[in-house]
Amino acid sequence: xxxxxxxxxxxxxxxxxxxxxxxxxxxxxxxxxxxxxxxxxxxxxxxxxxxxxxxxxxxxxxxxxxxxxxxxxxxxxxxxxxxxxxxxxxxxxxxxxxxxxxxxxxxxxxxxxxxxxxxxxxxxxxxxxxxxxxxxxxxxxxxxxxxxxxxxxxxxxxxxxxxxxxxxxxxxxxxxxxxxxxxxxxxxxxxxxxxxxxxxxxxxxxxxxxxxxxxxxxxxxxxxxxxxxxxxxxxxxxxxxxxxxxxxxxxxxxxxxxxxxxxxxxxxx
Length: 269
Known about the structure:
Number of helices: 12
């Protein structure tokens, strides 16, 4: 017997919004109270694991970039992009963009303080970035020498993320943060692993298809290009990372945390 709630007729009951909010607040509190060392190691793991998405993208560009049509290649790259997120979310590692929603909810519910939120965000963000730096360095060293991805493939991925205007990059990052906040909410609503995989794939493929900047996955993508392309400078990397980070945080905190919390708490029974 599965243990999932089953309604009359054998269909699974939909999880209520109040139940989702309660789960999110409880999980957020658990994360806010975790020891610093555990948080950092989990965040470091997420920063490493998410890099497999950009690596697979570079492999596909190298193998099929000149053979497939532009639309087909774009769809394949979006699906490759989702792989790293599936590894991270199902592996229960700490991802900064998840906590722009998850860890904010206990603060809104007055169960945690802004100081606790800042501590969590700082530790998780630094761990994600350090993990991404390590993965990018390994990828640009191993992949071209092993013959699975050309340096030009990493460069192509990085340039597409950094060529936008400041305002365009920021607003796109807000949308990406919004989607990642929704992902956290949807995963909490899911009642089985297959459903969680589907939601992770759905949201992150959407981000990939739209080319929206995700601060942690983008950290790997842009750094790999920076290591290999003379045209990309360190200021380009910092410009991207700052705008993507602030935009992601704003999108998750405002458009998911505040709105979801507000409509559930004020929605009555």
